[in-house]
C-alpha cells in the first residue's frame, strides 16, 4: 500500500517535471534564433479521442523492465478490466452541454457577433480596397462609434436618473399639496404621464443614436447582425449575392420596422413599453432601407418572440417547429430562447399570458363602466409607473397582435418531434441541428443546384457527419474537409463552421470535433484565412477561459496556428479594435488571445505593439488590456519570459502610477505574474518598479493595495538575502496592519505574501518570532478561518512555512491548546498544521511538557471527531506518534485502550478509524517494545474478523497485516495456523478494499510463514485466488499473481501448476491471461525446469485456447527468466517451430513474441544457431497485415538484431529492398529503417558492395585497406 | 500506409525521415541509397578514433588530414546525381 502510494507520488512528480520541461521547450519564440515558423511548426492535429490508436499501442509501447520481484508485465496488468467507476470517467458519461456548466460571465460569449470578413491587405497588394470590403479603418471607426454611443447612452442614463431623482425629491416635497386634485381614472395613470414626456424624448434619442450605424453592412454576409459600416450609404449592387436573395423567413415586413408604431397600433399601451429605458433593451432597430436585420434576435428589443408566433415558415424545410428566423443569421443572439422547442413553447405561453394581463385601454374601460357617475381622475403627481425590468421585458410589443387564442394551423409539412429520416446515409439530426442542417433534408435534385449551392450542401453534409456521425463517418468526413479545404474556399467553410460553434446547445464533444475541423482546415488554408481571422477569434477566444483544461489547450493551439497562418500584422489588425472594447469580457478574452499570439510568434515581434497599447492616451481600457496581455504572457509561457523580462517590465511600469485604479491594479498583478514566472531569476529587471511599489503600499488601500502586496510578495523571493530582509521589514508594517482587514481577498493575499516573505533567506527567525508571530496568531488563528476552504489551506501553508523558520516548538506550542477547541473544523485545521510541521521538522524540539499536551490534544481531537473524510485526524495522529518514536511509550497503554474501546463502537466509521490507527502506529509500538500489547491487539482484531461492514473489515485486515509485518510470523498471536483458515473464506469477499488487504495479508504469510500452514490449506487458497485474478483493481491482481509464486515456492509447483494449467481451458480471456502470468511466475520461482515439461506437454492438447495459453506463458517465462533462458532454448525450439508455422495467426503472434523475449534474453550467450533457425521461421511472417501480428513479428526481428547482430538481419533484408513489387519493397524498407535506427553504426561494415556506374563511384575503398 | 504502420515507428514516416536522414523508403533509388551508405561510412570512420588512426597509418597521412578528407568526401560522396530518366 505505502509503496504504491509512494510510486504514484513519484510518478506524479516526474510527470509534473516533464510537463515543466515540455512547456519550456515547446514554445516557439525568438524567431531570430530558431528561425521563422513555417507550416512544419504547426501542431498538425489535436489528438484527443482518437479512440482507435490509443488503446492498442499503450499496451506495447511500455518497455517491460527486468523485475525486482515477481510480477506480471505492466502491459498485461494494465489491460485488465476496469471498474465501473472508470467506465464512468471514460466516455460513458452522458454527453454534457457546455452551456450548462458555464457561469454568466462565460455565457457572455453568446453575446458576441461573428463579424463580417475583413479586408486582406496582403492579398490585395497595392490596390485600394473595394468600398464594400471592411477594412481595418472601417472596423476602427465602427468601434469608435460604438464606444461613443455607449458613452452617450451612459451619460443619458445618468442624466435621466439625476433628473428623476431631482424630480422625485421635488415631488415628494410637494406631494402633500399635489395629492388633493386627482381628476382621472386610476387605471390610466401610467400612460398619460409617459405619453407626453418620454415618448417624445425617445423618438428623438433613438434616431440620434442609431442613425449613423444603422446602415446595414452591405458586404457579403449581411446576415450577421453587426452594425454595418458608416460610409456604406450606397449599396454596391455588384456585391449582391445569394445571401441577399434568400428570403429571410419569419420576417414580417420590412416596412414595419418601427415596432412601436405599425404593428401593434393600440394593443399595447405605448407608455409602459417605451418609457425611460435608455439602453439596448429598447433599441428599436430603427428604420432602415433594407432592414434584413430586423428579425435577427440580436437585440432584446426586437428579439421577443416575434418568430415564435408563426409556425408556418416559408423557407425552413418544414421540419423545424421553431421559426426559421435564425436560419440566415449565424449568430444566436443573447436571447437564446427560441432555439429549443421547450423555450419556444415557454415563449408562447408567456406571450399569451401577457396578452391577457395587459393593461386595459381607455376604450375598453369606457365600454365597461357606465357613462355617468364616474369621473376620470388625474394621477397623483407622486405616481411613478412601475419600472421593473421584468415587466418591461414582457411589455415589448407583440408584433403579431395575436388574439387571445389562435387555433394552430395544421401544417402537414411539419413533423414536430419525429425527426425526418435523414437521406443519403446522413447521421441523425438533433432538433437544434435543423436550424443549421435543415436544408439537407430537402431532397432536391442536386444537379439542379448552382455550383455554389452544391458546394455549400457538400460542406454541410460533411460537417453534419463530423458533428453527429459515427467514428468512421466522422473520420472520412474530416479527411475530406481537410483535403478539399482549398477547393471549398475559406469563406463558405467558415460561414458554416463558425455559426455551429456559437450554437447554444453545443456539447463538449461536438465542440471538440468542430474545433478540430477548424484546426485541420486552418492548416490547409494557410494565408487564405486572413479575412476570417476575427470571426474565428470570436468563437475560439471563449475556449481560452473555459473551465475545462483541454478546451483551453485546444483554444491555444488554434489561435497559435491561426497566428502562424495569418501573420502578426493580420492578427494585430484583427484584434486591435477589441482591445478597448467597452465589454470587459471581450477585453479579457482578447488579452488572453494576444498572449497566445505572443508565444506563437515571439515576444519581440509583439513588443512595439504592446508598448504602444500600454501607453495609449485615448482610453484606460486599452492600457488595461495591454498590461493584461503582459500578465497573460507571463502566465502562459512561464520562465521563457526571462529574455524579455526587462522590456516587459519597462512597458508596463508606468501603469503603477496610472490615474485609473483598475490600471494600477492590473499593473501590479502583471508584475506579480512576471516575477512568479521569472523566479528565481530576474530581480534586476524589477529594479525600476521597486520604488513605486513600496511607495504604493503606503498610499493605497483596498484592492489596489492587495494587488501591490501580491506583486511585492512575488518579487521578494527573487532578491538577495540582505535586500529581501530589508524590504520584508518595510512591507511587514503594512502587512501586519492588514492582518485585521475584514476583506477575504485581502486576507488571502496577506497570508500568501507573509508566506513568501518568511520563506525568503534573509528573513531571520528572531524577527519573525518577535514581530510577526504574535499578531499573526492573534488575527489568523481564529475559528472563522477554518470555515473557508481556501483560507484554511492558505493559513496552514503559511504557518508551516513559518515553522520551517522558527521551529516546531514555537508554532506547536501556540496552537496545541486549540486541539481541544470546541469547533471541529478548527481542530482539524490545527491538527493538519501540526501534522505537517511535525512531519517536516520532527519532534526533537518538543519538550516533555509540550509532548504531554500534544498527546492529550490529539487523543481528544481523535476521539471527538465526528466526520473525517480526508483522514486529517488519522494522519495527524500517525505523524505525531511516528515522529515522537520511543517517547510515546508511556502513552501507548492509554492509546491502545482508546483504540480497543473504539473498535467496539457502534458506529462503523469509528471502528474503521480505530483499525486504521493501529496500522499507522504499529511500527512505533514495535520500537517501544510493546510486543505483548500488539499481540493483544492482534487477538482483538482477530475476534473482529466477523465484521460485516466491508470498509471496516478491510481496515481490520490492514491492521492485522501491519502487526504481522512488525512482530513476525513466529511471535504472532493468534498463531498463523489459526489465522489463515479464518482468512480463506474472506478471500471470497468481493469488496475491493477487503480483497486487497486480505490478499496482501495472505501473500505476506505465504511469503514468510508458509510452513505454519498445511499444504491442503494452501491449495484451497489457490482455488480462491483464481477467482481473484478477475479483480478490477490492478493492485489485487498483482498481489494475487505474486501470491501464486509464494505458494508454489512453499508447497512445490506440481499441484499449483496443475490447477493453473486446468484454468487455461476456461473461456474468459481475462482469466486465461492472468493464469499464464501466474504460470510464468511459478516457473520463475521454482526454476523453469520444474514447469516446462508439464507446460510443453499441455501444448499437445488440441485446443486453441490452451495452446495459446502455453505460448503466452512461454513468452512471459522467457521475459522473466532472461538469460537463464539459454538452458531452455533448445528444448522449446521445436514447439516454437510448430507454432510459427501454425495456420492460426494468434499462434504465430504469440510465438513471435516468445522468440523476441528469448532472443533478448540470450543475446551474447552463444545460442545463435537456434536463433537463426527460429529467425527463418519468423521471417516469412513479415508480410502479415494484422496489426498485432506484424507488430510481434517486427519486434521479434528487432530482438534478433540484438541477439544476432545487425549484419545478419541486413542480409535478410537486402533481398527485398529493390524488389520489383512495391508492396514488398515497402515492407523491406520498413524493416531496414528500424534496423538502421537501431544499429546504424554496425551496418557500416555490412553494407553490400555496389558497383560503380558511369560517373558515380559507389565503392568504399577505405574498407579494403590493409596494413 | 497500412493499418499496422500506425503502431510502430513507421507511423510517422516523414517525421522519421526528418529525424534520421539515412532512413529509406520504397522509392529510394540506388544512387540515393549509396550516398547514404557512403556518408554513414565516413561518419563512422570519423567517429571511431582507432579506425581513423588505422586509415592514417595505411595512407601515411596525419589523422587530422584523414578526418578532413573524410569530411570533405561526405559532401558529394558518389559524385553528381544521375539524370532522372523520367524528367
TrEMBL record, chain A:
<feature type="compositionally biased region" description="Basic and acidic residues">
    <location>
        <begin position="1"/>
        <end position="20"/>
    </location>
</feature>
<feature type="region of interest" description="Disordered">
    <location>
        <begin position="1"/>
        <end position="21"/>
    </location>
</feature>
<dbReference type="InterPro" id="IPR038737">
    <property type="entry name" value="SF3b_su1-like"/>
</dbReference>
<comment type="similarity">
    <text>Belongs to the phosphatase 2A regulatory subunit A family.</text>
</comment>
<keyword id="KW-0677">Repeat</keyword>
<feature type="compositionally biased region" description="Low complexity">
    <location>
        <begin position="303"/>
        <end position="325"/>
    </location>
</feature>
<feature type="compositionally biased region" description="Basic and acidic residues">
    <location>
        <begin position="160"/>
        <end position="172"/>
    </location>
</feature>
<dbReference type="GO" id="GO:0000245">
    <property type="term" value="P:spliceosomal complex assembly"/>
</dbReference>
<dbReference type="InterPro" id="IPR011989">
    <property type="entry name" value="ARM-like"/>
</dbReference>
<keyword id="KW-0747">Spliceosome</keyword>
<dbReference type="InterPro" id="IPR016024">
    <property type="entry name" value="ARM-type_fold"/>
</dbReference>
<dbReference type="Pfam" id="PF22646">
    <property type="entry name" value="PPP2R1A-like_HEAT"/>
</dbReference>
<feature type="compositionally biased region" description="Low complexity">
    <location>
        <begin position="257"/>
        <end position="273"/>
    </location>
</feature>
<dbReference type="InterPro" id="IPR054573">
    <property type="entry name" value="PP2A/SF3B1-like_HEAT"/>
</dbReference>
<dbReference type="GO" id="GO:0005681">
    <property type="term" value="C:spliceosomal complex"/>
</dbReference>
<feature type="region of interest" description="Disordered">
    <location>
        <begin position="159"/>
        <end position="340"/>
    </location>
</feature>
<comment type="similarity">
    <text>Belongs to the SF3B1 family.</text>
</comment>
<dbReference type="Pfam" id="PF08920">
    <property type="entry name" value="SF3b1"/>
</dbReference>
<protein>
    <submittedName>
        <fullName>Armadillo-like helical</fullName>
    </submittedName>
</protein>
<keyword id="KW-0507">mRNA processing</keyword>
<dbReference type="InterPro" id="IPR015016">
    <property type="entry name" value="SF3b_su1"/>
</dbReference>
<dbReference type="InterPro" id="IPR021133">
    <property type="entry name" value="HEAT_type_2"/>
</dbReference>
From TrEMBL, chain B:
<dbReference type="InterPro" id="IPR017089">
    <property type="entry name" value="Splicing_factor_3B_subunit_5"/>
</dbReference>
<dbReference type="GO" id="GO:0000398">
    <property type="term" value="P:mRNA splicing, via spliceosome"/>
</dbReference>
<dbReference type="GO" id="GO:0005686">
    <property type="term" value="C:U2 snRNP"/>
</dbReference>
<dbReference type="Pfam" id="PF07189">
    <property type="entry name" value="SF3b10"/>
</dbReference>
<protein>
    <recommendedName>
        <fullName>Splicing factor subunit</fullName>
    </recommendedName>
</protein>
<comment type="similarity">
    <text>Belongs to the SF3B5 family.</text>
</comment>
<dbReference type="GO" id="GO:0071011">
    <property type="term" value="C:precatalytic spliceosome"/>
</dbReference>
<dbReference type="InterPro" id="IPR009846">
    <property type="entry name" value="SF3b5/RDS3-10"/>
</dbReference>
Amino acid at each position: 500500500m505505502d509503496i504504491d502510494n509512494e510510486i504514484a507520488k513519484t510518478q506524479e512528480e516526474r510527470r509534473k517535471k516533464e510537463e515543466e520541461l515540455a512547456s519550456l521547450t515547446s514554445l516557439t519564440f525568438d524567431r531570430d534564433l530558431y528561425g521563422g515558423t513555417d507550416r512544419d511548426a504547426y501542431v498538425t492535429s489535436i489528438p484527443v479521442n482518437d479512440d482507435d490508436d490509443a488503446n492498442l499501442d499503450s499496451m506495447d509501447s511500455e518497455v517491460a523492465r527486468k523485475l525486482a520481484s515477481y510480477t506480471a508485465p505492466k502491459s498485461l496488468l494494465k489491460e485488465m478490466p476496469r471498474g465501473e467507476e472508470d467506465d464512468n470517467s471514460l466516455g460513458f458519461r452522458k454527453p454534457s452541454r457546455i452551456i450548462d456548466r458555464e457561469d454568466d460571465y462565460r455565457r457572455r460569449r453568446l453575446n458576441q457577433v461573428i463579424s463580417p470578413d475583413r479586408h486582406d491587405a496582403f492579398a490585395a497588394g497595392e490596390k485600394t480596397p473595394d468600398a464594400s470590403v471592411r477594412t481595418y479603418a472601417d472596423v476602427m471607426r465602427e468601434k469608435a462609434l460604438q464606444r461613443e454611443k455607449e458613452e452617450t447612452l451612459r451619460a443619458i442614463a445618468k442624466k435621466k436618473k439625476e433628473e428623476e431623482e431631482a424630480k422625485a425629491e421635488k415631488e415628494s416635497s410637494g406631494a402633500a399639496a399635489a395629492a388633493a386634485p386627482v381628476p382621472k381614472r386610476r387605471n390610466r395613470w401610467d400612460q398619460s404621464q409617459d405619453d407626453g414626456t418620454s415618448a417624445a424624448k425617445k423618438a428623438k434619442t433613438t434616431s440620434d443614436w442609431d442613425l449613423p450605424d444603422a446602415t446595414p453592412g452591405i458586404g457579403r454576409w449581411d446576415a450577421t447582425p453587426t452594425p454595418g459600416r458608416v460610409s456604406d450609404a450606397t449599396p454596391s449592387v455588384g456585391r449582391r449575392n445569394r445571401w441577399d436573395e434568400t428570403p429571410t423567413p419569419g420576417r414580417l415586413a420590412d416596412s414595419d420596422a418601427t415596432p412601436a408604431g405599425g404593428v401593434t397600433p393600440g394593443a399595447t399601451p405605448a407608455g409602459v413599453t417605451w418609457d425611460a429605458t435608455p439602453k439596448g433593451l429598447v433599441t428599436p432597430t430603427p428604420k432602415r432601407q433594407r432592414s434584413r436585420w430586423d428579425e435577427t434576435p440580436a437585440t432584446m428589443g426586437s428579439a421577443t418572440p416575434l418568430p415564435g408566433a408563426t409556425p408556418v415558415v416559408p423557407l425552413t424545410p418544414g421540419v423545424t417547429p421553431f421559426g426559421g428566423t435564425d436560419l440566415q443569421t449565424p449568430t444566436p443572439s443573447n436571447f437564446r430562447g427560441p432555439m429549443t422547442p421547450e423555450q419556444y413553447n415557454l415563449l408562447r405561453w408567456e406571450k399569451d399570458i401577457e396578452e391577457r394581463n395587459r393593461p386595459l385601454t381607455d376604450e375598453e374601460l369606457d365600454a365597461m363602466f357606465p357613462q355617468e357617475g364616474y369621473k376620470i381622475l388625474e394621477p397623483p403627481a407622486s405616481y411613478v409607473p412601475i419600472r421593473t425590468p421584468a415587466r418591461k421585458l414582457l411589455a415589448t410589443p407583440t408584433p403579431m397582435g395575436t388574439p387571445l387564442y389562435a387555433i394552430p394551423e395544421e401544417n402537414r409539412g411539419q413533423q414536430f418531434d419525429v425527426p425526418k429520416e435523414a437521406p443519403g446515409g446522413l447521421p441523425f439530426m438533433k432538433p437544434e441541428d435543423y436550424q443549421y442542417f435543415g436544408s439537407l433534408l430537402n431532397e432536391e435534385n442536386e444537379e439542379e443546384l448552382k455550383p455554389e449551392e452544391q458546394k455549400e450542401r457538400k460542406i454541410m453534409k460533411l460537417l453534419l457527419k463530423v458533428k453527429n456521425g459515427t467514428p468512421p463517418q466522422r473520420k472520412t468526413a474530416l479527411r475530406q474537409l481537410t483535403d478539399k479545404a482549398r477547393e471549398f474556399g475559406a469563406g463558405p467553410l467558415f460561414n458554416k463552421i463558425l455559426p455551429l460553434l456559437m450554437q447554444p446547445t453545443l456539447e463538449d464533444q461536438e465542440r471538440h470535433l468542430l474545433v478540430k475541423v477548424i484546426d485541420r482546415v486552418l492548416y490547409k488554408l494557410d494565408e487564405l484565412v486572413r479575412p476570417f481571422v476575427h470571426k474565428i477569434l470570436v468563437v475560439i477566444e471563449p475556449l481560452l477561459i473555459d473551465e475545462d483544461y483541454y478546451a483551453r489547450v485546444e483554444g491555444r493551439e488554434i489561435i497559435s496556428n491561426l497566428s502562424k497562418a495569418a501573420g502578426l500584422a493580420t492578427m494585430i489588425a484583427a484584434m486591435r479594435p477589441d482591445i478597448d472594447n467597452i465589454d470587459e469580457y471581450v477585453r479579457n478574452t482578447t488579452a488572453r488571445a494576444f498572449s497566445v499570439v505572443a508565444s506563437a510568434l515571439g515576444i519581440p515581434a509583439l513588443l512595439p505593439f504592446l508598448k504602444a497599447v500600454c501607453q495609449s492616451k485615448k482610453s484606460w481600457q486599452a492600457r488595461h488590456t495591454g498590461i493584461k496581455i503582459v500578465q497573460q504572457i507571463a502566465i502562459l509561457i512561464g520562465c521563457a519570459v526571462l529574455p524579455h523580462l526587462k522590456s516587459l517590465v519597462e512597458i508596463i511600469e508606468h501603469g503603477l502610477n496610472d490615474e485609473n485604479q483598475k490600471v494600477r491594479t492590473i499593473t501590479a498583478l502583471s508584475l506579480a505574474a512576471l516575477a512568479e514566472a521569472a523566479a528565481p531569476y530576474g530581480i534586476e529587471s524589477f529594479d525600476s518598479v521597486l520604488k513605486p511599489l513600496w511607495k504604493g503600499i503606503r498610499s493605497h488601500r483596498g484592492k489596489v493595495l492587495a494587488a501591490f502586496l501580491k506583486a511585492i510578495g512575488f518579487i521578494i523571493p527573487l532578491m538577495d538575502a540582505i535586500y529581501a530582509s530589508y524590504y520584508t521589514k518595510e512591507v511587514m508594517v503594512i502587512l501586519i496592519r492588514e492582518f485585521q482587514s475584514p476583506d477575504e481577498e485581502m486576507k488571502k493575499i496577506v497570508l500568501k505574501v507573509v508566506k513568501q516573505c518568511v520563506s525568503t533567506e534573509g528573513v531571520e527567525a528572531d524577527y519573525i518570532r518577535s514581530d510577526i508571530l504574535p499578531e499573526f496568531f492573534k488575527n489568523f488563528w481564529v475559528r472563522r478561518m477554518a470555515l473557508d476552504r481556501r483560507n484554511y489551506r492558505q493559513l496552514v501553508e503559511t504557518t508551516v512555512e513559518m515553522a520551517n523558520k522558527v521551529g516546531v516548538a514555537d508554532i506547536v506550542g501556540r496552537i496545541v491548546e486549540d486541539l481541544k477547541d470546541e469547533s471541529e473544523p478548527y481542530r482539524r485545521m490545527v491538527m493538519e498544521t501540526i501534522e505537517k510541521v511535525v512531519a517536516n521538522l520532527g519532534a526533537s524540539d518538543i519538550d516533555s511538557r509540550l509532548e504531554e499536551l500534544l498527546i492529550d490534544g490529539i487523543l481528544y481531537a481523535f476521539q471527538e471527531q465526528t466526520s473525517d473524510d480526508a483522514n486529517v485526524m488519522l494522519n495527524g495522529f500517525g505523524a505525531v506518534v511516528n515522529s515522537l518514536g520511543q517517547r510515546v511509550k508511556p502513552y501507548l497503554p492509554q492509546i491502545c485502550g482508546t483504540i480497543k474501546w473504539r473498535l467496539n463502537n457502534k458506529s462503523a466509521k469509528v471502528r474503521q478509524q480505530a483499525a486504521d490507527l493501529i496500522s499507522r502506529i504499529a511500527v512505533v509500538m514495535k520500537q517501544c517494545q510493546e510486543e505483548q500489547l500488539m499481540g493483544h491487539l492482534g487477538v482483538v482484531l482477530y475476534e473482529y474478523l466477523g465484521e460485516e461492514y466491508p470498509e471496516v473489515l478491510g481496515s481490520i485486515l490492514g491492521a492485522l497485516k501491519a502487526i504481522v509485518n512488525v512482530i513476525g510470523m513466529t511471535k504472532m498471536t493468534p498463531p498463523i495456523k489459526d489465522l489463515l483458515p479464518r482468512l480463506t473464506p474472506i478471500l471470497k469477499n468481493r469488496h475491493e478494499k477487503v480483497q486487497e488487504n486480505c490478499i496482501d495479508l495472505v501473500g505476506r504469510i505465504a511469503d514468510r510463514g508458509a510452513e505454519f500452514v498445511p499444504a491442503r490449506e494452501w491449495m484451497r487458497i489457490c482455488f480462491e485466488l483464481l477467482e481473484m485474478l478477475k479483480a478490477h483493481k490492478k493492485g489485487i491482481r498483482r498481489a494475487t499473481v505474486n501470491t501464486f509464486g509464494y505458494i508454489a515456492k512453499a508447497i512445490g509447483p506440481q499441484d499449483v501448476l496443475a490447477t493453473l494449467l486446468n484454468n487455461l481451458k476456461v473461456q474468459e480471456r481475462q482469466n486465461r491471461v492472468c493464469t499464464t502470468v501466474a504460470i510464468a511466475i511459478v516457473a520463475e520461482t521454482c526454476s523453469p525446469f520444474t514447469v516446462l515439461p508439464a507446460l510443453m506437454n499441455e501444448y499437445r492438447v488440441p485446443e486453441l485456447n490452451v495452446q495459446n495459453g502455453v505460448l503466452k506463458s512461454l513468452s512471459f517465462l522467457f521475459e522473466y527468466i532472461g538469460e537463464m533462458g539459454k538452458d531452455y532454448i533448445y528444448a522449446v525450439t521445436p514447439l516454437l517451430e510448430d507454432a510459427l508455422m501454425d495456420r492460426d495467426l494468434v499462434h504465430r503472434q504469440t510465438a513471435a513474441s516468445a522468440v523476441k523475449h528469448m532472443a533478448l534474453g540470450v543475446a551474447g550467450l552463444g545460442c545463435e544457431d537456434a536463433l537463426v533457425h527460429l529467425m527463418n521461421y519468423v521471417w516469412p511472417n513479415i508480410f502479415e497485415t494484422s496489426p498485432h501480428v506484424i507488430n510481434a513479428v517486427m519486434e521479434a526481428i528487432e530482438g534478433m538484431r540484438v541477439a544476432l547482430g545487425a549484419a545478419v538481419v541486413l542480409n535478410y533484408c537486402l533481398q527485398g529492398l529493390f524488389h520489383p513489387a512495391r508492396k514488398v519493397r515497402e515492407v523491406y524498407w520498413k524493416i531496414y529503417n528500424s534496423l538502421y535506427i537501431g544499429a546504424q553504426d554496425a551496418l557500416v561494415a555490412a553494407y553490400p558492395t555496389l558497383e560503380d556506374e558511369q560517373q558515380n563511384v559507389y565503392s568504399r575503398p577505405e574498407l579494403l585497406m590493409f596494413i | 500506409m497500412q493499418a499496422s504502420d500506425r503502431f510502430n515507428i513507421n507511423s510517422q514516416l516523414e517525421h522519421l525521415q526528418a529525424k534520421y536522414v539515412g532512413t529509406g523508403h520504397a522509392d529510394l533509388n540506388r544512387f540515393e541509397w549509396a550516398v547514404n551508405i557512403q556518408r554513414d561510412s565516413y561518419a563512422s570512420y570519423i567517429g571511431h578514433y582507432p579506425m581513423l588512426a588505422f586509415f592514417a597509418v595505411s595512407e601515411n597521412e596525419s589523422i587530422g588530414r584523414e578526418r578532413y578528407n573524410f569530411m570533405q568526401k561526405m559532401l558529394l560522396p558518389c559524385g553528381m546525381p544521375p539524370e532522372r530518366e523520367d524528367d
